[in-house]
Design a protein that fits this description.
Blueprint (H helix, E strand, L loop, with lengths): L2 H11 L19 H11 L3 E4 H10 L5 E3 L24 E5 L2 E3 L5 E4 L8 H4 L2 E7 L3 E2 L2 H8 L7 E4 L4 E2 L7 E2 L6 E7 L1
Parallel strand pairs: 1-11, 2-3, 3-6, 4-7, 6-11
Antiparallel strand pairs: 4-5, 5-8, 9-10
Length: about 190
Amino acid sequence: MNSRESILQAIRKLPKEEKNLPELPEFGNNSDLLAEFCEAITRNAGEVLLSEEFKKWMNENPLEKVISLVAAYSSYSTQAIPEDPHALDSLDLAIVEAQFGVAENGAMWLDEASLSHRVLPFIAEHLVIVLRRTHLFPTLHQAYAQLQGTSTGFGVFVAGPSKTADIEQSLVIGAQGAKSLRVVLVD
């Protein structure tokens, strides 16, 4: 037996004591989740719209290649969902639905089960996320608690349009994803 194996064997013989994770206190202000969420989206360079405002925006900004995964806005789809995600490379707009949002930072959870392709929210030039007002949590702690036991294999929090300032500290919007984010709040 070499020294590595003897060390590993000694570690395996050590008694293991079960330790529970610490209880987290309730953080966040529950007074006006919607106002806090809207403010966070705005800080993240996104825009919050009501359904009628979104319809007006769509009429004023006709886009060529649009895919909507939200039944209420399926009339805006100009193309079918392709089998091959590479066919999405020139997508102008994706309309998807978030499972819930987080008031403290404006993050919204997109689950693989509600996306046709994982790449959809990242490859579209512009992204619209539909969110029910009643599906807001005050903090990420509470949002993560909601996720326990519901994993479909992939999910992502989206909190604004893609942006980076890594290179020469120059802000670039749309560097790794959508150039704009609009959140449509519905009842």
